[in-house]
Amino acid sequence: MCTCITCENGAFYFGRNLDLDVSFGEHVVITPRRFPLRFTRLPVLKEHYAMIGMAAAPEKFPLYAEAVNEKGLCMAGLNFPDNAVYRKEEAGMFNAASFEMIPWILGSCGSVEEAAELLENTCVTDAAFSAGLPPAPLHWMLADGRKCLVLEPVRTGLNILDNPIGVLTNNPPFEYHRWNLNQYLNLQAAPAVNRFAAGLELKPCSQGVGAAGLPGDASSVSRFIRAAFLKWNSVSGSTEEENVSQFFHILDGVSMVRGSVVTPRGTWDITTYSCCVNAGRGIYYYKTYEDSRIRRIDMRENDLSGDSLITEIDRKFSF
């Protein structure tokens, strides 16, 4: 359960809510240019673009939930159960395990256009990170300031889909979400007008009735519609502070409150963290469920030429 969005207002921003019932040991991780990225079947990337994002298991390999590289290319993985289909290795293809997709693409490519060329010949394999960490069912959103794609590994292969909406949630597949927006084309941020009957004197009972029918539940279908409505009707000032604040307000509009979404296991999904990155400047902002203060980490204030991962745990970032 997650929601990912893009926004552009003088700068390009990318971010997401990560909604889970447990922590996966996440913390902010910077992968510098010379940290060797060792893949299961792909060649080792001894040198690559630096990147920053939220990850786990940094001592061995950065398992990014989302990240941005120093060229401004952004990528996030979102839960895609029952639909994600990973394959066995295929000869003549780039065989990338699902957990390798973000560091491989962001390490290798400086733009969506470059990434799309690699992805045309990519097989997302079913290799596990370890015996205790089987592959999670995922699809991905990939974006820079010029283009946005959705990548969905399904039974027929890897679908690479244009995403002009700049929003992604979870099931069903993206093409359903894109079509489903048509069901809500009558919603508006402006005051409602009487279209019911010309012969009746009707007027709105309050502000906001123009968007009556905007879904408010936490399902992925409803979050997609609500995030798209909030994003495309968003109005922000032009400063970095105003843009970042507005981005988090949009994410707040689709966040999960503890107790409001009960899983089949009897646990509660919550928005464990929300993040926003200024892609052009490599500045990563985030807040957690337990701490709503927005923290700021500038990738470029750290040594990006090194060969060791830089994490919140082993050094102090600039907040």
Would you write up a description of this structure?
- The chain is of the alpha+beta class and 319 residues long.
- It is 15% helix and 28% strand.
- It contains five helices and 16 strands.
- An eight-stranded antiparallel sheet has the order 11-10-9-6-5-4-3-16. Strands 12-1-2-13-14-15 form a six-stranded antiparallel sheet, with helices on one face. The chain has a two-stranded parallel sheet with strand order 7-8.
- A hairpin with a 2-residue loop joins strand 10 and strand 11 (157-162).
- The radius of gyration is 20 Å and the shape is globular.
- The two termini are 28 Å apart.
From the structure above, extract its key features.
6-stranded antiparallel sheet; 16 strands; 8-stranded antiparallel sheet; alpha+beta; 319 residues
Brief summary of the model shown:
With 319 residues, the protein is an alpha+beta fold. The protein is built from five helices and 16 strands.
Nearest-angstrom radius of gyration?
A: 20 Å
End-to-end Cα distance? 28 Å
Please estimate the helix content: 10-25%
Strands ordered across the widest β-sheet: 11-10-9-6-5-4-3-16
Along the chain, the helix and strand elements come as EEEEEEEHHEEEEEHHHEEEE
Number of extended strands: 16
Structural class: alpha+beta
Biggest beta-sheet profile: 8 strands, antiparallel
Uncertain segments are none
Portion in beta strands = 25-35%
What is the residue-averaged pLDDT? 94
- What is the approximate shape? globular
Number of helices: 5
